Amino acid sequence: MESPKVLAVITARAGSKALPGKNIKLLGGKPLIAYSIYAAKQSRLLSDVIVSTDGEEIAAIARAEGADVPFLRPAELSTDETTHIPVMQHAITFMENKLGKRYDYVVILQPTSPFRFVDDIDLTLKKLIERGADSAVTIYEVEAGHHPIKFKTLEKDDRIKPWYGIHEPSHLRQGLPLVYKRSSAVYAMRRDLIMDGKLYGDHVVGHIVPQDRSIDIDTAIDWVKAEYMLEQLKKYFDF
Fold first, then answer.
1. Are residues 129 and 66 in the same domain?
2. Nearest 5°: phi and psi at 72?
3. What are 149-179's pLDDT values in tens digits?
4. Structural domain of 162
5. The Cα angle at residue 211 between residues 6 and 151, in degrees rounded to 5
6. Is the domain of 128 the same as that of 37?
7. What is the radius of gyration, based on Cα positions, of the chain?
8. Same domain, yes or no, for 47 and 126?
């Protein structure tokens, strides 16, 4: 049986406002985007890996790290309002026309989640395929102290109401249902789902990853957290 054709796209827009130049900012002496390139290149399931960027400097650094950057993303697909869907549709169309083949699945890898392992990619993708799902994402378990049962809404008369539907029990760490949060490390989906203008679909499955490797860098504070996390993870990212 022929292996599924899978395109992975590392999405790296140049115009970050909260943390300018973050996709190529040095983390542990390496450009941030290098971590995603390193993990993707180790995958046993990805057929092709490319970087989609509108930045010449990002493209040059990505190529130096061994990535394929087959185009510069058009400016109209690189605004603050641009979602993943048109970016992925552009990348899929370009690569299918270039290589003369049709992909079965596509994977989105954001440089701002640098601490994914190659198994995070392959096991998420494997779960998507084996479950016959529309899409699959990495998730991590939410600690009891941040459980949504603790969340409240504030009414106009300052009355507090439970967001979760019930007030938190007195025994906070016992009997709480496990809840998970999307980690942003890996998004995998059927190729046709994206081309139909959808990111998740109706059947979404999750692959659990450790919280201590889950971060989505957006602000300067996130960057400080990432530097601290890297100190604990150095042995896994010696490349």
1. yes
2. -100, 130
3. 888 889 888 888 887 777 776 655 566 778 8
4. 143-178
5. 115
6. yes
7. 19
8. yes
